[in-house]
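Module 6 notes. Inverse folding takes a fixed backbone as the condition and produces residue identities as the prediction. Think of it as a translation problem where the source language is geometry and the target language is the twenty amino acids. Below is one complete input and output pair. Work through it position by position during the lab.
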């Protein structure tokens, strides 16, 4: 295992020694230890940033939440593993809080921790891309914040689209999701979390959405499935855009401009407050659905009124977020939520897309519940259009390639 620097916060001497030995057994020898939150802070101030902090929650005096907040504020840990004997619901809630604070959470361990579970989480840190949000944002932060709204608008040519495949359980590619990136001339490829606040602050979120839609449809027209049909694409749409009277007309115009059938486009809508459609706007959305355009409710279960919105709008698909899927194989509560969503979807005649499939355990747990469409790092990471075409060609059976050339 690549050389890692790890901090353990644990006030029980035997548990501390056991964790230290588990890390050594996994090839991690740069291990910092602390028996209190103050001790952890002092150690970090002396020894500097760590790759992973393993944080116990139950402590005498300040509990582990104090250290988690300190790590989020200081950026002194690239990733976090939560350790506790608390019930699973508490661990999940702490993990959600840590993510809201901007920390990268690898997972949680219930005491007594075992070496196999710890190894899996350590591998997740090495195998999955990304650093802490703070580490990603800091070098870009100052330069981006210095840009005026006009300069942000002028950077439109640098907004590029990457595509993440969606596959069925037979491995066949059924479509892709279009995800925006900013190819900055000096900062490199930026993820949405690094520049979305700037885009929103400049009032350019709709401009960005239309740009991504246009690029995605152009790619759909060029890339083809085995049957020669345009590659289905899913595009995220800001909910406020649905309230525009000309929204449906603009989508239809874009489809005609690229000669892409409506059935190849899925509009993914994230639930937010204050997005109410009047009868004309709803009629426009229904026209799109009648023509074959798909409508997906993204991050299902994360919004405050997903169920109500699901009944109000003509959705054809619901998308389960990674928060429900990650670690589902070891969490019966998450498995119950996903199973319930799949049952509801079948009864409502909705397709289901499960995102965030990151491990073979996640995949097998999903398979046990049904056969939804899947996307996630275990299948493929988002990639540029030319890389996606190469990826699809490599997966395409030889006989299919011969048919395409015939």
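Target side of the pair, the amino acids:
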């Amino acid at each position: 295992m690549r050389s890692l620097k790890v901090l353990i916060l644990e006030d029980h001497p035997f548990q501390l020694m056991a964790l230290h030995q588990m890390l050594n057994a996994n090839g991690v020898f740069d291990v910092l230890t602390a028996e209190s939150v103050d001790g952890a802070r002092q150690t970090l101030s002396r020894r500097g940033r760590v790759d992973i902090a393993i944080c116990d929650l139950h402590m005498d005096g300040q509990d582990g939440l104090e250290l988690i907040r300190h790590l989020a504020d200081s950026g002194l840990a690239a990733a976090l593993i939560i350790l506790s004997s608390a019930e699973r619901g508490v661990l999940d809630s702490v993990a959600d809080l840590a993510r809201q604070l901007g920390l990268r959470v690898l997972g949680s361990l219930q005491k007594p921790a075992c070496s196999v579970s710890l190894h899996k989480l350590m591998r997740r840190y090495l195998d999955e891309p990304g650093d802490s949000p703070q580490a990603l944002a800091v070098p870009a932060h100052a330069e981006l914040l210095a840009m005026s709204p006009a300069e942000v608008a002028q950077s439109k040519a640098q907004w590029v689209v990457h595509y993440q495949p969606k596959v069925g359980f037979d491995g066949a590619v059924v479509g892709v999701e279009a995800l925006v990136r900013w190819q900055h001339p000096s900062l490199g490829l930026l993820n949405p979390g690094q520049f979305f606040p700037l885009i929103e602050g400049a009032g350019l979120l709709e401009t960005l959405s239309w740009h991504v839609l246009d690029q995605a449809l152009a790619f759909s027209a060029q890339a083809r499935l085995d049957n020669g049909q345009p590659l289905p694409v899913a595009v995220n749409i800001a909910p406020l855009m649905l309230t525009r009277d000309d929204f449906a007309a603009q989508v239809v115009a874009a489809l005609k401009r690229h000669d892409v059938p409506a059935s190849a486009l899925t509009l993914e809508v994230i639930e937010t407050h204050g997005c109410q459609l009047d009868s004309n706007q709803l009629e426009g959305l229904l026209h799109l659905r009648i023509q074959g355009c798909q409508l997906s409710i993204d991050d299902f279960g994360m919004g405050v009124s997903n169920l109500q919105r699901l009944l109000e709008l003509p959705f054809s698909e619901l998308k389960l977020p990674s928060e429900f899927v990650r670690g589902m194989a070891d969490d019966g509560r998450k498995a119950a939520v996903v199973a319930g969503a799949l049952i509801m979807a079948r009864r409502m005649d909705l397709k289901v897309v499960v995102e965030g499939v990151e491990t073979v355990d996640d995949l097998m747990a999903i398979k046990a519940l049904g056969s939804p469409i899947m996307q996630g790092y275990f299948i493929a990471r988002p990639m540029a259009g030319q890389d996606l075409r190469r990826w699809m060609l490599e997966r395409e059976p030889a006989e299919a390639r011969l048919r395409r050339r015939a």
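Reference fact for the lab report: The radius of gyration is 23 Å.
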